[in-house]
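Record now logged underneath.
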Amino acid sequence: TPANLGRLKDGTPYRYQIVAVNLGNSRSTPGQDAQATTKPAPETPAGVAAASGLPRKMRVRWNPNPEPDIAEYIIEGREKGAWRFREVARVKAGGGEPLEAVQEGLADNTTYEYRIKALDKERLESEWSANTQGTTKALPAAPAGLKIAWEGDQAVVSWQAPEGAGIQQYRLWKKGLLGMNSARIGETDGLTFTLDGVGAGSRMAIQVTAVDNDGLESERSEVLDIRR
């Protein structure tokens, strides 16, 4: 009759002997030793790396484990410096190609840390991998050097392009009373924007933002006061 031998360690050899005991509690001579080794835990995932520079997301990649019966991988992440990791994804095993997990909705220009462990079909777990880290893409810098030139009742607003490539659009904002409830009044892919119908007595406060090719929008520029 099988007996419960208790919880054993993974990948560990054990030796056993069987002794018969009669009703009088007499014990037989031990039988021949039997030896067996428990199944080892999966190896720690290798080749773990996080990609930096992605907009508001991180991509973590790693190599598949060599064991043929890996069921899935658990990925945990945290903002660098945070107290604890939390689970961010589970990825099914399969194939021999590098695996990946993506975490979205992250903060801009922020560093995150990740670690991975493997689980086999019998739910044996590997050790956690070494931590890897990456940093999300920063917002573009705000346009600077706002100026105004007059052409009749038209106010031509100009600015300097921020450093760095990949700016695809600029947006103009009109500040509301006391700086509240700013309204977007236009956009352009150039470095100037023309405001029509700015007659005598007109007054407004304008700011400009830069939008990159990933849709990330900069902070607003310094305020340009337009008075006529």
